[in-house]
Design goal:
The complex is a heterodimer of chains A (about 200) and B (about 725). Chain A contains two helices and nine strands, in the order αββαβββββββ. With about 200 residues, chain A is of the alpha+beta class. Chain A has a single domain, classed as Sortase (Sortase, Chain: A, Beta Barrel), CATH 2.40.260.10. The longest helix of chain A has about 45 residues. Helix content of chain B is about 30%, strand content about 35%. Chain B contains 14 helices and 38 strands. The chains are: A alpha+beta (about 200), B alpha+beta (about 725).
Chain lengths: ~200, ~725
């Protein structure tokens, strides 16, 4: 490094330090934002349950909480926002509801980032129960029936022929560096008829 | 529709006659000829398919139903063939039935198929071959299995489910069969051959008949899975009734002793003798069309039959025994005491319902007439017939005097087969009419068994049998063997099957001779061990023609057991050493099946709470022994199976996005794209940040080395 003058080296050091600080800060900001947002969202959710609709968690928000997702077995308790575009996924999982023309079946699709909210999807197992509370306070239970890795560039998921389904979608593989890969990890859960469930009897 | 098509066909014929000859007109003539044939064929097919759909609702037995989600599509499925493969060792028969069928439609369909198995069949495995995959099923609690099946089906995956519909009727469902695809279903089960009249018998049902559902009593059917097929409209269901596809047979028999005789009663067979009682058996002419049940029988060479057969199996730390006491040959019997011969009362209970019409009622009449000629004037008797109503010859049993027998003949001649099967009042009358202390009443119950409220009947028999005995006789082409066998068991008697009208007098004669001479009565077991379970709880009497069979489960191995009872009216006992019992495969499964049957019989007499307990116990037993039961089903839960349909149907469809809360209305057949971006670049940023930090540190260290004296940052 003899050909580099002291001044140049000092500048390199300065720039590197700035880059390091910026990237590290923004890297840590993503999970911190995800956690802090959830706390703000819980407040907004309480007023939603109290009867308000489309409660914005912060003034400049363009989305609002629509559901609360719980999996007690994995200590998961998250507020879900409406819509699955990038600006809402930074704060919380995003929900889209598909209604089918024949009305005998339905699909709720919740997407979230694999490295924040939906990191727990790599631990879910078949048969586990997911609870979803809607804006009216009703809690619906879904049982995990299947997990699948799907190439979103080539395929979608088929609309279920029967039953009401919840799909949790996140990116795959869970520890990849590239955030634009086409693979998606999809968890399929079917709504448990409240009186088929054993807890109904007791 | 038929009429209309025929009219068009007629029009073509008229046109045909007008056209004059010439090369072009010749061609037109041929074309019209072809058209005419095609139209007639279409008319015929339409008529035929109409008939099939119309009968589908009533006759679900042994039929394949293909169910499509598109109600406009009429479907036809083709049952290609059935293969029966049996390995018989001693009395235990391990069987495998393979059913092959083809989806001949252009639709993805669900196949629902109902078929009979022997009433005592213990089903423990199911394998499906479709689309080049071999899939094995697991045993699961019934509701769980159904849920797995439904969700896999809804996810458009290949899946299969086998359920016990009734004790001898099974339901199999296969989801997502591709157009034109061939499916092989392989069902494994075991059951015991029967020993009767000095010969071993093995029955395998080829078809079952529709049942009559009784109206007034029996509010609950013993149907484990009511009306699964009924939810489909007839236009969605097409069927092919049984008896049209070929059945092939392969049996390997290892009897354990040299045989004097080996025959099939209703089918021509080809047998190869491998020596020492080992045989290979096939149908003589390859595959047959199944119209009659298979009935195979074999007879040991005289003196080769042991007095007892004992089998032992250790399973999950417990010991299971299977014991059989063969009857003695008639030449070794002492004379019956005069006292025993005097105490006789026979009640004939005859089913004259509509399902008995034709050959069955003729056989029943022959049976009664030949039975009456066997009666001694000192014997008491009565005849009760039942269809929708009950008629009895006498109010109480009367001696078989010439006058009384003449009245009986007249009474029988007037009985015609019509109406439903209200057997309950008739059976109650036969069981509860006034007892005589000096007589053991024998009730001989003749029926084709086509009734459905079986459980109430078992309760009635159990509560009223006392020292009387009930003998059931199944007649016609397919009596309900399950019901009749069990009724006889509860009634401490036996079951006789008579399939052929020519055999009636011979086989009924045998039955009457048999019940005339019980060898052992009121048999009990003495076991010197605390934790023992014996099935059945009450052991049937030993007659000349049938063995006594029981199963034992213990924690610790048993050295010996003692049998007690009355032999020709005198007290009797016998020691059996269990140390030298043979190791048998399937003894534990047999015990589990018997236990579940026993608990099922108890069910009707339990309170609701204990029924729940009982069902849980039965589920646990079935799961432990991996066998099918009313509470357990076989289901394919292989998660690696592909979404067969989505792969082929995928189109990058763009759903219409509505303004309202991003809700989207789409068609069921549509594919939903996974459009959300579900990863952040946090990790990438972290890595870039860390690399920059590392480089910064390297540069700083370098600068420090160059100017150790200077302060840096």
């Amino acid at each position: 490094m003899r050909f580099l003058s002291d001044k140049v080296l000092k500048w390199i050091l300065f720039i590197l330090s700035v880059i390091a600080v910026y990237f590290l800060a923004s890297a840590f900001y993503i999970p911190v934002k995800a956690v802090i947002a959830q706390n703000l969202l819980h407040t907004a959710w309480q007023s939603t349950l109290a009867g308000a609709s489309q409660v914005k968690p912060w003034p400049w928000s363009d989305t609002w909480p629509v559901a609360r997702l719980r999996m007690p077995e994995l200590n998961v308790d998250q507020i879900v926002l409406d819509g699955d575009h990038g600006s809402s996924l930074a704060f919380a999982p995003g929900q889209r509801v598909f209604h089918f023309t024949d009305k005998s079946s339905g699909l709720t699709m919740i997407s979230a980032h694999r490295d924040t909210h939906f990191n727990f999807l790599q631990d879910v197992k078949l048969g586990q129960t997911i609870e979803l509370q809607n804006e009216f306070g009703e809690v619906k239970k879904y049982q995990i029936e299947d997990m699948e890795i799907i190439d979103s560039g080539k395929m979608g998921i088929n609309a279920p022929a029967q039953g009401h389904w919840l799909t949790l979608v996140t990116c795959y593989p869970f520890n990849a560096i590239d955030s634009s890969g086409p693979l998606r990890y999809v968890v399929f859960a079917e709504e448990v008829d409240p009186c088929v469930d054993k807890s109904c009897l007791s | 529709m038929l009429q209309h098509q025929n009219n068009i066909a007629q029009d073509n014929i008229t046109q045909n006659n007008i056209i004059r000859h010439g090369p072009l007109t010749e061609l037109a003539k041929i074309a019209l000829d072809v058209l005419q044939h095609v139209l007639i064929l279409i008319a015929f097919l339409m008529f035929f398919s109409f008939v099939q759909v119309a009968t589908a609702e009533e006759d679900q037995s042994n039929s394949l139903f293909l169910v499509s989600q598109n109600p406009r599509v009429s479907l036809s499925a083709l049952m290609v063939k059935t293969e029966i493969d049996m390995r018989i060792t001693g009395m235990i028969n391990r069987s495998k039935v393979t059913q092959v069928f083809k989806n001949t439609s252009n639709e993805w369909v669900e196949g629902i198929y109902q078929f009979p198995l022997p009433a005592s069949a213990i089903v423990d495995a199911l394998q499906i071959q479709m689309g080049g995959q071999v899939i094995n099923a697991d045993i699961k609690p019934r509701s769980e299995a159904m849920r797995h099946y439904q969700s896999a089906k809804n996810l458009n995956k290949r899946t299969a489910l086998l359920e016990q519909h009734r004790p001898n009727i099974f339901n199999s469902s296969i989801a997502n069969i591709a157009p034109g695809e061939e499916v092989r279903i392989e069902i494994s089960f075991q059951y015991m051959a029967r020993f009767e009249d000095g010969e071993f018998k093995l029955r395998f049902p080829m078809r079952v008949q529709p049942r009559y559902i009784s109206g007034d009593i029996g509010t609950e059917q013993e149907d484990f899975n009511p009306g699964r097929l009924k939810k489909y409209k007839s236009s969605q269901v097409s069927s092919q009734t049984g008896g049209k596809s070929p059945v092939s047979l392969h049996i390997e028999l290892d009897a354990g002793f040299p045989l004097a005789e080996l025959e099939s009663r209703y089918h021509a067979i080809k047998k190869t003798n491998h020596g020492l009682g080992r045989y290979s058996i096939r149908f003589k002419f390859g595959a047959v069309l199944a119209k009659r049940d298979l009935e195979l029988f074999w007879r040991p060479e005289p003196g080769q039959l042991p007095r007892t057969a004992l089998f032992h199996e250790k399973f999950k730390g417990e010991h299971y025994y299977f014991a059989m006491l063969y009857p003695q040959q008639s030449d070794q019997q002492p004379e019956m005491s005069a006292q025993a011969l005097l105490n006789k009362e026979v009640v004939y209970l005859v089913d004259t319902s509509g399902s008995m019409a034709g050959a069955s009622i003729r056989q029943a009449r022959d049976t009664i007439l030949s039975a009456l000629t066997d009666l001694d004037p000192e014997d008491y008797f009565n005849i009760i017939t039942f269809n929708t109503q009950t008629h009895s010859l006498f109010e109480q049993s009367k001696p078989a005097s010439v006058f009384n027998v003449a009245r009986a003949r007249q009474f029988i001649a007037q009985s015609n087969a019509r109406g439903g099967t209200e057997m309950f009042p008739a059976l109650r009358k036969a069981l509860t009419s006034q007892d005589s202390e000096h007589r053991r009443r024998q009730i001989i119950y003749l029926t084709d068994g086509a009734i459905i409220n079986e459980r109430d009947v078992f309760g009635l028999i159990r509560n009223n049998i006392k020292k009387n005995r009930l003998f059931t006789v199944g007649i016609g082409t397919s009596p309900n063997s399950y019901f009749l066998h069990k009724a006889a068991k509860v009634g401490r008697g036996s079951y006789t099957y008579i399939g052929d009208a020519n055999e009636v007098s011979e086989r009924l004669g045998k039955l009457l001779k048999k019940i005339n001479r019980p060898q052992l009565q009121d048999i009990g077991l003495v076991i010197n061990s605390g934790l023992v379970e014996v099935i059945p709880e009450t052991i049937a009497d030993l007659y000349e023609s049938e063995p006594v069979i029981f199963s034992i489960k213990t924690k610790a191995p048993l050295a010996q057991i003692k049998l007690v009872g009355y032999r020709y009216g005198e007290e009797w006992s016998r020691q059996l050493s269990l140390n030298d019992s043979n190791n048998g495969f399937g003894i534990a499964k047999h015990w589990a099946h018997q236990k579940i049957n026993m608990l099922t019989e108890d069910r009707s007499e339990q309170s609701e709470e204990s029924i729940n307990n009982l069902e849980k116990r039965m589920t646990d037993i079935a799961l432990k022994h991996k066998i099918m039961s009313p509470y357990t089903s076989l289901v394919v839960v292989d998660r690696s199976l592909a979404h067969v349909r989505s792969r082929t149907q995928f189109q990058p469809a763009k759903p219409v996005i509505l303004a309202d809360k991003q809700s989207t209305f789409i068609k069921t057949s549509q594919v939903i794209p996974l459009s959300a971006k579900t990863a952040t670049d946090a990790q990438l940023k972290l890595i870039v940040g860390l690399i920059s930090l590392f480089l910064a540190i390297v540069v700083r260290i370098f600068l420090r080395r160059r100017y150790p004296s200077k302060e840096w940052f």
